[in-house]
Amino acid sequence: MSIGSTIKRLRREKDITQEQLAEYLGITSRAISQWECDRTAPDISQLPALCHIFGVSSDVLLGIDIEKSNDEIKKYLTEATDLGNQGKGAERTALLREANKKFPRDFRIMERLADSLVCEYSRKGIKEYGEVFELCNRILAECTDSNIRYEAIDTLGVAYGYAGKKDEMLKLAKEMPRTHFSYENFMMYRWKGDADFEEFQGYLSFLIYHTAEMIGLVVGQRHDNGEFIYPLEDRIYLWETEVAFLELLFPDGDYQITAQLGEVACSFLCTTYLRKQNYEESWHWLEKGANFALHMDTYDFEAAHTSQILRGYSSGGWIMEAEGNRSQSMLRWLSTADEAAVLRTDPRYETLVNRLKAVAKNP
Fold first, then answer.
1. What is d(CA 153, CA 29) in angstroms, rounded to the nearest whole number?
2. Residue 325 main-chain phi, psi, to 5 deg
3. What 8-state DSSP symbol labels residue 210?
């Protein structure tokens, strides 16, 4: 529907004559008639007054179908998420570029495109993040949605890090709220009853994942001279603690997304015991790590947890790395790494490899 037809419809719905509308706007009734016949159109400066008179938004006045547009935008974002979960980074970026051209002022699409570019560029070792900077800074300059703004700040900070712009990254970090001031921390004692329980579980899932992740990160911290802060025996203890933490919370093996953290910890333990020539202990952690990897690669993204701590809650999917899934990465290391040569002579090797091959794949 043309803007002239829309003005005519809205004028009649409000029971306003052409002469009255012309008087409101300080123009002639002939000008109104010309609009409604689509011979001319209102000047852009007249749009706010028309919106006020008819009590509608500019999108309604211009004939933009917001509901239809939102449905299409949601479809783009859902397809982009699916492509990301399948490890199809280039296809995801291409789809979001298409969406950005079609909806150039949608901040959700801008942020997702910026995030997709960071993921793709970081895997390719690209250091030029100009497009990401432009997208995120536009969001921060124009968007009023706080959630999208924080997502843009997070994406921009990651891009600054990969681009080697540490000062800009640290300056940006100061704009983020401390953990104590997060929505989840604020609501922790205020969530009540059935309606809020899923949010409670979501925050608990976040805390479990990031507690395990922080244990893994602290183990790898080094002094300024490059030496590990923790001695080797302490690092072994902390890696084992991380695995025990996950096994304690998910006694039935229902790890979902946290399985990748268990697999990484077990990999460190396996290689550490290899270097100590404790081959039996190395095999113990190798097999445990393989179980984590197999779970990570085969669990149903939509399935709910069965363990008591998060029973009924789904953690969601994950983005497959460019080199393949977790089983593929473990299989590659087992079959090619020099330090794994002794493991390849063990009679248990073939059985373990066949288990991994059953689910290993390249994207």
1. 50
2. -85, -175
3. H
For 333, other C-beta atoms within 10 Å of its C-beta total 15
**pTM (2 decimals)?**
0.71
| Best CA proximity match to 291, nearest among 216, 351, 214 | 351
> In this structure, is the dihedral angle defined by the CA atoms of residues 158, 159, 164 and 169, taken in order, positive or negative?
negative
Distance of CA 1 to the CA centre of its chain: 38
Q: What is the Cβ-side half-sphere exposure of residue 338, based on CA atoms within 13 angstroms?
A: 0
Q: Answer yes or no: are the C-beta atoms of 77 and 109 closer than 8 Å.
A: yes
**H helices of 276-345, where?**
279-298, 326-336
User: Residue 125 has what pLDDT?
Assistant: 85
Q: Rounded to whole angstroms, how far apart are CA atoms 339 and 323?
A: 20
Q: Which residues 6+ apart lie within 8 Å of 342 measured at CB?
A: 274, 279
pLDDT of residue 318: 64
Pick 349 or 58 by higher pLDDT. Answer: 349
Torsion sign across C-alpha atoms 53, 54, 56, 62: negative
| pLDDT tens track for 320-363 | 554 568 899 899 999 999 999 999 999 999 999 999 999 886 54
Tokens of 71: 């449905």
